[in-house]
C-alpha cells in the first residue's frame, strides 16, 4: 500500500504506464506481437475493444513512445502539462464512473469501451499523469539510477527515496557493486 493519497486506479494506471514504457527499454523489444500485448493488457485488467491486429500493436507502441517523452520531461512541469493536455485532447477523454466485479471500487473510465485500444489506454494514462501533476508530485516520475539502465519508475514511497526500477534487479546489482568497492578499498588500506 502506498503512502500517498492517489486513488487505487491512479496507482494501478501509473504502474501500467511504467511497464508499458519499459517494454522497449530493458533487454530489447517486449511488444513484438499480439501475444505479448495481450499478456500486458490482461496483466493490468484492460477491458473493452481489442482489434488484435498490426495497426493496434503499432498504435500502442506509438503511445508508449509518447508516454516515455512525458517521463523524460518530468522536471519541466509546464512541458508535461502541455503533453498531458494534448494526450487528453487527442484521446477525446470523457470521464465517467464505473466499477466491475473484479474491481468493486468506483473508478474512472475516460473513453468508451468501443474506442480503439490506444485511445482508451492513452486517456486513462493521461488522467493518471494529471493526478500526479495536481498533487505536485511530478518528481515521483523517475528514471532508474543504475548507470546501465534506462527504465522508468514511479516512486510511491513516502519519502521519495526509491532510485531503482523493478525490471533488471538494478538495486541489488548497485548495492553489491558498492559493497565490493567498499570491501576492496578496505582491503587496500
UniProtKB/TrEMBL annotation:
A Pfam family assignment: ABATE
InterPro entries: ABATE, ABATE_dom_sf, Znf_CGNR
Annotated coiled-coil segments of the chain: none
SUPFAM superfamilies per the UniProt record, alphabetical: Jann2411-like
Record domain Zinc finger CGNR: where: 140-183
Name recorded for this polypeptide: Zf-CGNR multi-domain protein
Naturally occurring in which organism (per UniProt): Mycolicibacterium hodleri
Amino acid at each position: 500500500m502506498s503512502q500517498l493519497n492517489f486513488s487505487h486506479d491512479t496507482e494501478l494506471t501509473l504502474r501500467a504506464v511504467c511497464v508499458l514504457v519499459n517494454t522497449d527499454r530493458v533487454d530489447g523489444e517486449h511488444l513484438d506481437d499480439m501475444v505479448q500485448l495481450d499478456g500486458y493488457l490482461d496483466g493490468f485488467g484492460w477491458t473493452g475493444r481489442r482489434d488484435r491486429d498490426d495497426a493496434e500493436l503499432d498504435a500502442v507502441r506509438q503511445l508508449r513512445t509518447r508516454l516515455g517523452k512525458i517521463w523524460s520531461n518530468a522536471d519541466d512541469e509546464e512541458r508535461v502539462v502541455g503533453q498531458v493536455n494534448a494526450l487528453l485532447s487527442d484521446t477525446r477523454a470523457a470521464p465517467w464512473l464505473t466499477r466491475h466485479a473484479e474491481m468493486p471500487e468506483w473508478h474512472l473510465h475516460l473513453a468508451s469501451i468501443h474506442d480503439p485500444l490506444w485511445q482508451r489506454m492513452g486517456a486513462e494514462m493521461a488522467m493518471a499523469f494529471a493526478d500526479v501533476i495536481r498533487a505536485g508530485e511530478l518528481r515521483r516520475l523517475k528514471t532508474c539510477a543504475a548507470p546501465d539502465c534506462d527504465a522508468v519508475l514511479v516512486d510511491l514511497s513516502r519519502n521519495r527515496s526509491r532510485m531503482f526500477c523493478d525490471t533488471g534487479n538494478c538495486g541489488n546489482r548497485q548495492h553489491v557493486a558498492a559493497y565490493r568497492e567498499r570491501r576492496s578499498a578496505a582491503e587496500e588500506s
